[in-house]
């Protein structure tokens, strides 16, 4: 992967909405703006920057339509890793939840999906089997030019943080991380744990759902 491909937009361009600003008034404003964005959005316009959604999220487009910006997902999150887009992300994304993995990854507990009233976040079983079957937040990518372990300085922080270590990630000589994309659910805990600055491993958010697409193909073939 080239260095220019590795660089991604950080969330610094917009200030996330903190828990102190989530309340009844915010929910009313969010609902009004969310309704306006649904009515006035140009559906021919290509999607903007893709962010890491909470686990169980519907594919892009479907998620924004289903999310009512109620903030319940963040209130239910015991890890406090869910933030909300501000105006800088555009009207379609305003007040929708996202996770900035470098700050805090997702522990895949599923409480956010349980709290979602509309199905924008689909509930899943908080087990390895449940994660592999239902969670598709993104895929971790390693920049070997930055990773300590690929330069003979054993680290392994990302491997030890991975909830699917041995499946989504294995390690080689000097604990070099090897990501297995078909098993990685994109929780971001590896990105949070990385000791290198800037981080040598990042989660690339999913544009839709690989598992949902695979399921649809299986249904058609059946």
Largest sheet: 2 strands, antiparallel
Helical residues, percent: 25-40%
Question: End-to-end distance, in Å?
Answer: 38 Å
| Poorly predicted ranges | 8-13, 36-48, 212-222
Number of domains: 2
Structural class designation = alpha+beta
Q: Topology as H/E string?
A: HHHHEEHHEHEEHEH
Please give the order of strands in the largest beta sheet. Answer: 1-2
**How would the global form be characterised?**
globular
Strand content bin: 5-15%
What's the count of strands? 6
Q: What's the overall average pLDDT, rounded? A: 82
Radius of gyration: 18 Å
The number of helical elements comes to: 9
List the helices and strands and how they pair.
Elements lengths: L2 H4 L17 H17 L21 H5 L5 H5 L5 E3 L12 E3 L11 H5 L12 H7 L3 E5 L14 H5 L7 E3 L5 E3 L9 H5 L7 E5 L4 H12 L1
Antiparallel strand pairs: 1-2, 3-6, 4-5
What can you tell me about this protein's structure?
The chain is of the alpha+beta class and 222 residues long. It folds into two domains: 3-115, no CATH class; 136-216, Alpha-Beta Plaits (2-Layer Sandwich). Helices cover 29% and strands 10% of the residues. It has helices at 3-6, 24-40, 62-66, 72-76, 111-115, 128-134, 157-161, 189-193, 210-221, and strands at residues 82-84, 97-99, 138-142, 169-171, 177-179, 201-205. The strands form three sheets. It has a two-stranded antiparallel ribbon. A hairpin with a 5-residue loop joins strand 4 (169-171) and strand 5. The longest helix is centred in the first third of the chain and has 17 residues, at 24-40. The radius of gyration is 18 Å and the shape is globular. 35% of the residues are buried. Mean pLDDT is 82; it is low at 8-13, 36-48 and 212-222.
């Amino acid at each position: 992967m080239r260095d220019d491909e590795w660089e991604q937009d950080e969330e610094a361009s917009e200030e996330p909405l903190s828990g102190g600003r989530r309340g009844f008034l915010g929910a009313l404003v969010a609902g009004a703006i969310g309704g306006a964005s649904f009515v006035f959005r140009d559906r021919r316009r290509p999607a903007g920057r893709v962010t890491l959604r909470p686990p169980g999220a519907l594919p892009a487009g479907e998620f924004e339509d289903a999310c009512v910006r109620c903030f319940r997902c963040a209130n239910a999150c015991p890890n406090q890793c869910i933030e909300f887009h501000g105006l800088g992300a555009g009207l379609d994304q305003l007040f929708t939840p996202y996770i900035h993995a470098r700050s805090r990854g997702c522990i895949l507990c599923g409480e956010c999906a349980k709290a979602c009233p509309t199905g924008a976040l689909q509930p899943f079983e908080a087990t390895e089997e449940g994660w592999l079957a239902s969670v598709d937040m993104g895929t971790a990518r390693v920049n070997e030019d930055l990773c300590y372990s690929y330069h003979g300085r054993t680290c392994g922080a990302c491997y030890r943080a991975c909830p699917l270590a041995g499946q989504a990630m294995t390690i080689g000589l000097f604990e070099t991380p090897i990501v297995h994309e078909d098993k990685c659910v994109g929780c971001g805990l590896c990105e949070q744990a990385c000791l290198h600055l800037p981080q040598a491993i990042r989660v690339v958010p999913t544009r839709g759902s690989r598992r949902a697409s695979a399921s649809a193909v299986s249904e058609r073939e059946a």
